[in-house]
Specification:
about 525 residues; mainly alpha; two-stranded antiparallel ribbon; two-stranded antiparallel sheet; 17 helices; SusD-like_N; membrane
Length: about 525
């Protein structure tokens, strides 16, 4: 019987983004015989482009921001999140973990298909040979990224080589081929680094092309190696790869002037800040998938019916001279200096989320919207600042607190208009706390906070941080959202294996507590 594969028309459609970021033509809907669907390098490129599109999910940024301490309840909240994520409710039916699991394994399945098809095609020109090899390298990087994402959310301890991660997926599975146990972290890390090493080798053999942040590049592969080694606690290798990206990528940190353009208008220069992002086009604009609509019913503005706002605890950590303040907090916010004693803090203290797609101008409309063919933001997956923060972690692990402070200062200098004082780190705990706090501000609403607390919280002696006004005020009274209900030793720092997996896989092991 001929193999059949369905091109997921019903889920994501088959529009694809080209190098010029224009929509390319699509395949006809339906089920295609594999040999008919993918016959050339260009066909395979279309399939890869569609694989990128399938990964453009806001699920991580949305779940993490609500479950941790990045948001407070918005003045237009009609019950969104207050009975589950905001009050730390998790079980195998929870949407957040299920979305993270499904989106990443869906992408892995497509990457596996691409790798198999790349081996079957018989290119006859040098251009096609290089194109197929580049596609193969990108698929390997995407597969590694998705495995690392699964591992970080679902393992109980990223630094324990024998702890369970997810299920390594490196082949195309038959329809009834379901029963697989979870692999260990050691197996996951070995698999991830093998994929990344193969990809880097392939990239090294290709003609040099201009860098693009919308494709899984050699630089992204190197950054993923730094991230994976950091997660494993191997800071020697983590620092080596972070330094490689810093010194050889050709990228620079965004400045005070250019940082907002990364998140508000997507107009930053190609060599500024962003290592990899998932590109979204205007034709993809939809409330169900726009990044800003994770927190707003409409556009990111006071008229956009915010379900969630910047949490008071996060707001209180921001410095108004820091460009991240104006990027995170909408200028049309209503800031109540007496919020702690307000009888209606939900309406008197409106801290509007500006990141992503907001504005820097009071009274101005936001850049992003929900209208047909309207602006909507790309999803940032890796930025250069992460490499400097990995360097800072590595310096603390090496007992070099001055080196850690220097790495933090590099980021702060780029986010202010003037050079900043060298942070004073009195001991290792204070250093880990400074790094965790810096990551909280730098990566707010990008999906980092859950993993950051999970792996750094104990070292920093710092966990979920919510202001009482966000969970026990007269108009925002959610006592289950008290941070004491999610201590650092909670089993919930390892997400539940979703029912969508356990219902069909009798061999998979559920995490403790669920």
């Amino acid at each position: 019987m001929k193999k059949i594969f369905f091109i997921a028309i019903a889920v994501f459609g088959l529009t694809a983004t080209s190098c010029s970021e224009e929509l390319m033509e699509t395949y006809a809907p339906g089920a295609l015989v594999e040999e008919t669907a993918i016959q050339t390098a260009d066909d395979l490129q279309l399939f890869l482009n569609n694989t990128y599109n399938g990964l453009t999910s806001r699920s991580q940024a949305e779940f993490v921001s609500i479950f941790t301490d990045e948001v407070g309840i918005g003045f237009e909240n009609g019950g969104q999140g207050v009975n589950d994520d905001y009050v730390f409710f998790l079980n195998p039916q929870s949407a957040g973990p299920d979305n993270i699991w499904a989106v990443n394994y869906f992408t892995i399945a497509r990457a596996n298909r691409i790798l198999q098809l790349a081996d079957k095609l018989k290119p006859t020109t040098t251009a096609d040979i290089n194109k197929i090899n580049k596609i193969r390298a990108e698929a390997l990087v995407l597969r590694a990224y998705c495995h690392l994402t699964i591992q970080s959310y679902f393992t109980t301890d990223m630094k324990n080589p024998t702890a369970l991660a997810g299920i390594i997926s490196n082949k195309i599975y038959g329809i009834d081929d379901n029963d697989y146990p979870r692999n260990t972290n050691a197996e996951f890390y070995a698999f991830i680094h093998n994929d990344l090493n193969q990809a880097i080798t392939i990239f090294n053999g290709l003609p040099v092309t201009a860098f693009s942040s919308i494709y899984a590049s050699k630089t992204f592969a190197q950054g993923l190696k730094a991230r994976a080694y950091t997660y494993a606690g191997d800071y020697t290798n983590a620092e080596t790869w972070a330094n490689t990206v810093i010194t050889s990528s050709g990228l620079s940190l965004a400045t005070y002037a250019t940082y907002p353009s990364v998140f508000l208008t997507e107009t930053n220069a190609i060599n500024v800040e962003v290592i990899f992002k998932l590109k979204r086009t205007n034709t993809q604009n939809a409330q169900a998938s726009n990044l800003h609509n994770a927190w707003y019913n409409g556009a990111p503005s006071i008229a956009g019916a915010p379900w969630f706002e910047v949490s008071r605890a996060l707001f209180n950590k921001l410095n108004t001279s820091d460009t991240r303040y104006r990027t995170l907090v909408n200028p049309n916010s209503v800031i109540d200096p007496n919020y702690a004693t307000s009888v209606d803090v939900r309406n008197s203290d409106r801290l509007l989320i500006n990141k992503h797609g907001g504005t820097l101008t009071v009274g101005a409309a936001p850049w992003a919207g929900t209208g047909t063919n309207g602006n909507n933001n790309d999803i940032k997956v890796m930025r250069l600042s992460e490499m400097y923060l990995i360097r800072a972690e590595a310096r603390v692990a090496a007992a070099d607190l001055t080196g850690a402070a220097t790495a933090l200062k590099v980021i702060r200098d780029s986010r202010y208009t003037t050079a900043q004082a060298l942070p004073i780190l009195t001991d290792a705990t204070a250093a880990w706390k400074a790094i965790l706090d810096e990551r909280r501000i730098e990566f707010a609403f990008e999906g980092y906070r859950f993993i950051d607390i999970k792996r750094l919280g104990t070292l920093a002696n710092s966990g979920i941080d919510r202001n009482p006004s966000d969970y026990q005020s007269a108009t925002a009274n959610y006592p289950a959202g008290n941070p004491v209900n999610l201590p650092l030793n909670s089993y919930k720092w390892a997400l539940p294996i979703p029912n969508s997996e356990t219902n069909v896989n009798s061999a998979v092991q559920q995490n403790p507590g669920y």
